[in-house]
Design a protein that fits this description.
It contains 19 helices and no strands. With about 425 residues, it is mainly alpha-helical. The chain has a single domain, classed as Growth Hormone, Chain: A (Up-down Bundle), CATH 1.20.1250. The radius of gyration is 21 Å and the shape is globular.
Length: about 425
């Protein structure tokens, strides 16, 4: 009896959601710990410029986006828990190696290697969760899973900032890398349910089993003909451009432009991020599942409206001279932005066939990062070198506006496609 209970728990959806959510938390802690130590890296023996500092995130994201499509195809054909465990192990080791870097090129290479590991995890985990939970619960499930993004990012700022102040930037990388190895071992215990297990009545045509270029091309060619999906991803790209640039540069912006002490800036922004991210992501997930009962386009409309409301808040937060006004408006902007996290990711998996979901997520990852936050940290850094960081960050509200408008278009395209079906 005890053995059956143990087997049931190991194969349960709750365990999968818990393990994958904790992995996602450490994924983003690792990703943004570098943001907390930007000013220390600039003043360290490495003596990095703002463009070089921005390129550290760009290096990670370039490798991440290039490898994501290949892991997406594997995720639709191979054991998903094993692929995820492999990815988590790789990025944990690479993060630890970042702390040993003795030059810009060594640090650049270590951060780039993190991208290989994260590509395996991020592209496959939402697909695995979609086969644990039915469509009516997916916005909430994705909200729980993606709630780890603001929490993990905030912990990256807080943990990185505290360790940097007390022990130095190298220790921040050492501490961030270790927990992922334990989570990778736990992931190997997860059950891999059949594709489409939670989508009764869906006719599944198995994807081509080949692993060559022709198989990959055929998979993604089918996805790019799905107009609502393509528009959703393009809106997500502008959103990611804004969020990535904002997340990477805000601690430095607060220190330079607002006069907030080193360490305090990262921790303060981290507190805003974790509170708004936690509240906004959960609220968006539950609100999305409620609204979708009345409209199939609810996930996209909710994301579009919330993002458009965020635009004036973001603009005022980045242009005001008052720290109080900045705090109020930044909370408002981040809260509205995070409302879309669960719904927009639920929309992506619902707009495609169950046997294409890992590939669809992989293509989304490729596009949103290649054209989004792989560009924005470096672009903002380069604009800052040319003028000032105060001027450079004004590109963020523009990207938020574009995101909301494209998601409005995607919602209309989804409605049109449903009417023609």
């Amino acid at each position: 009896m005890a053995e059956r209970k143990h087997a049931s728990w190991v194969g349960s959806a709750s365990l999968a959601l818990a393990v994958l959510s904790f992995i996602n938390l450490f994924n983003y802690l690792d990703r943004y710990v570098v943001s907390a130590v930007v000013e220390s890296l600039k003043r360290s023996e490495l003596a990095l410029s703002d463009a070089q500092l921005g390129s550290l995130m760009t290096a990670f994201l370039i490798v991440y986006t290039i490898t994501a499509p290949f892991f997406g195809v594997l995720g639709d054909r191979r054991s998903r828990p094993r692929l995820i465990a492999l990815g988590v192990g790789v990025w944990s080791v690479a993060t630890t190696l970042s702390g040993f870097a003795g030059s810009f090129l060594a640090l650049f290479a270590a951060r780039a290697a993190v991208g290989v590991g994260e590509a395996a995890y991020v592209t496959i985990a939402p697909s695995l969760l979609s086969d644990y939970y039915p469509a009516a619960q997916r916005a909430r499930v994705m909200a729980i899973f993606f709630c780890a993004i603001p929490v993990g990012s905030a912990l990256g700022y807080v943990v990185g900032g505290l360790l940097d102040v007390h022990f130095g930037w190298r220790v921040a990388f050492f501490v961030s890398g270790g927990p992922g190895l334990i989570l990778a071992a736990l992931c190997l215990r997860l059950h891999d349910p059949p594709r489409g297990a939670q989508d009764p009545g869906t006719t599944l045509k198995q994807p081509a089993t080949g692993s060559g270029i022709a198989s990959i091309r055929a998979t993604y060619a089918h996805l790019v003909r799905n107009k609502p999906y393509v528009l959703t991803v393009l809106g997500y790209t502008a959103y990611t451009f804004a969020m990535g640039g904002l997340a990477y540069w805000m601690p430095a912006f607060l220190e330079r432009m607002r006069g907030i002490p080193h360490g305090t800036a990262a921790i303060g922004f981290g507190k805003i991020l974790v509170i708004t991210g936690f509240v906004g992501t959960f609220a968006g997930g539950w609100l999305g599942d409620y609204c979708v009962k009345y409209s199939r386009q609810a996930f996209l409309w909710l994301s579009a409206i919330a993002t458009l409301i965020a635009v004036p808040f973001a603009w005022v937060a980045l242009t005001t001279g008052s720290n109080t006004v900045y705090t109020v408006c930044m909370v408002g902007a981040q809260l509205c932005m995070f409302l879309s996290t669960g719904p927009i990711n639920a929309a992506i998996v619902n707009l495609v066939s169950p046997i294409e979901r890992a590939s669809a997520i992989a293509l989304s990852v490729f596009v949103i990062h290649a054209l989004g936050d792989a560009i924005s940290p470096y672009l903002i850094g380069a604009l800052s070198d040319a003028s000032s960081l105060d001027e450079a960050v004004k590109i963020v509200p523009v990207a938020i506006l574009i995101s909301g408008l494209i998601w409005c278009w995607a919602a209309r395209a989804q409605a049109s496609s449903a009417a023609q079906a």
